[in-house]
From TrEMBL:
Domain of life: Eukaryota
Pfam families xrefs: Tetraspanin (PF00335)
Disulfides per UniProt: C167-C187
Source taxonomy: Eukaryota, Metazoa, Chordata, Craniata, Vertebrata
Segments traversing the membrane: 32-57, 77-97, 104-128, 218-241
GO cellular component terms attached to this protein's record: plasma membrane
Protein name (database record): Tetraspanin
Amino acid sequence: MLREFEAEPEVKELQLIFRMSVSRRCLCCVKYLMFVFNLIFWLGGCGLFGVGVWLSFTQAEFSSLPLSFPSLSAANLLLVAGGITMVTGFLGCLGALKEQRCLLFMFFVILLLLVLTEVTLVLVIHIYHEKLDSKAQGELKEGMKIYESEPGLKKSWDNVQKMFKCCGVTNKTDWYDVLNGTLPSSCCSVGTDQCVDGWSEPCYQKARQWLLSNISSVLVFGVCIGVVQILALVFSMLMYCQILCAEKHLD
């Protein structure tokens, strides 16, 4: 009986060592999975930011137009989303390598807020897309009023109409109130001094179609990033719990 009593502490110690070993292995596994997913997440952010920069450069000739112009608003949105994703991914990688609960919790909260913001933004755009389109068109029409007095805006509108072969925001008649019943020369083929019968297609719709036809791959990429975000949330919480469990065993 005495020997059995003396053996009990040794058994408990062995069980504790075994539990700590298993806990450490689980933590190590979750740590590297967390790092890999956050690395993919960070690279995804770089990709989004890069597409935003590319879109900004391709739309540089339209930079004087209001930000409600479809391609300009998409470029700014991608730049912001890419930048936040890169910072969040870096924070997650650092938290995983350092095994710090504070960094992991901060990463989890920021990423959760980011995911909720993205979902809310998608829902708002989907539900209120007609109202948003109408408001954007109104802002563009309002900006047309300073076409003759603002050289930068004039150049941007001329570049848009020449590139997309379109005229006006929703119709070529948008220019009649601005230019006293006439059309700008950019509404017609290159080399035309006076434009009488301009292109019939509206610029807002043409720019929107161009954006949708060129951004399909970005949308697929965005969905993949969304999946990685969800997995990163799960792994960050798992790692947080594993670190907490390991600290309790050490205590």
